[in-house]
Amino acid sequence: MTPNVSPAGRVAEAPPQAPSAGRSAPPSTTRLIGVDLARGLAVLGMYAAHVGPDPTDGGPAGFLMEPAHGRASALFALLAGFSLLLITGRRVPRTGREGRQAVARVLIRAAILLPLGTALTMTGTSVDVILAFYALYFVFALPLRRLRARTLALVAAAAAIVMPQVLYLVQWLIRTGDWAPAVVHYDPLARISGTDGFLGLLFTGAYPVLTWMPFVIAGMAVARLDLASAVVLRRLVLTGAALAVLGYGGSWLALHLFPRAVEAVDPVGGNGSAMSLWWSDAAGEPAGTGPARLLIASPHSETTLSVLGNTGVAVAVLAACVAAAAGLPRVRRLAGPVIAIGTMSLTAYVLNIVGIWALGIQDVPGSPLPVLLGFVAAVTLLAVLWPRRFRRGPLEYLLNSATKAAQLVR
């Protein structure tokens, strides 16, 4: 069975080996149910970020929405790396003809997600669509598919430390130079979509490749591990918690140690203090473009501290979901609808964007809570009822069918 790539739905693996002493049984003989659970939570988090109440409005609803911003999309990116290895070989990389076909499947998915994401962007909604960025994540991550877990973790850590500084420099060059408009002018993707094209996907967009690849590579590192081991899962949860403390806590400490930095990034709008930029964007968009911005860790701030904190949350959530789904049958039953959403997450994501466009929703976020609940109810109903007749979600089926062309690779 050919696995689908997050957020394209179901994931699948070869039947696992019998567990050794001291290990719990694998979560599933055909699928990591916990990964579907994590993906379902990411979908719901994205819904909250898109059509939920605006956190800057304050109140209990706004506060509950805040954790989804930036962190749901980071979880998606982490799962992208995980799913890439489900295709190319999770524990042991596929080689030979099988390996070449796996690479072709990933490239076909990327070739589909790029125009799909571009088309959704062209609907004119206020949502920063991630799918086109996803396509480049897959392409850039492919050369790393054969690395061991430890090496992947080191590469992810190095990228998290270095790439935000590189992005800051590139964005400074874009702002101060006059070369960027010429690049956009000759970019066919930019001409078609009316966006910054590949320049936006790489550097200036909401999910720039430079600072989002660490999430993808971290997901690949997690995928290499033995997730049937309770010890491994506990270590992952602790590692995720430590990264979250390092990222968000490091930003909190920096903002308290350097009051002039707080003044430099003090937002113009919003309802909060600049001191909240260590984890939240409820205070508004940080002011200025100076290096003080590198000390904050708010969602989409594209700093090292932000990447570390968001990676930590994503790793901990994924490990907790795998552990809960594997060891707690009651959790699997209660979370069944969320798991079902996770198996058709590409369909759920696209329907969310289409729904926002069809309803003419302008404020993203900023919808009343009943709107969010309506979107969630609709996608849950679809996810629960669809599998009664069909094996895959509608877009998951089309994507899986398209990748069958990879079988022609010799």
List the helices and strands and how they pair.
Layout: H1 33-51, H2 59-65, H3 71-88, H4 96-121, H5 131-141, H6 149-176, H7 180-185, H8 188-193, H9 197-204, H10 209-224, H11 230-257, H12 259-265, H13 304-327, H14 329-334, H15 336-343, H16 345-359, H17 369-385, H18 394-402
Walk me through this protein's architecture.
This protein is mostly helical and 410 residues long. The chain has one domain (33-226, 238-408). The protein is 63% helix and 0% strand. It is built from 18 helices and no strands. Helix 10 (209-224) runs parallel beside helix 13 (304-327) and helix 11 (230-257) packs antiparallel against helix 13.
Helix content: 55-70%
Structural class assignment: mainly alpha
Provide a count of the helices.
Answer: 18
| Assembly context of the chains | single chain
Terminal Cα span: 19 Å
Strand content: under 5%
Integer tally of domains? 1
The biggest sheet, with number of strands, parallel, antiparallel or mixed sense and barrel status, is: none
Mean of residue pLDDT values: 89
**N-to-C series of helices and strands:** HHHHHHHHHHHHHHHHHH
Shape: globular
Overall number of strands: 0
- Our Rg estimate from Cα atoms comes to 21 Å
Residue windows where pLDDT falls under 50 for at least 5 positions: 1-30
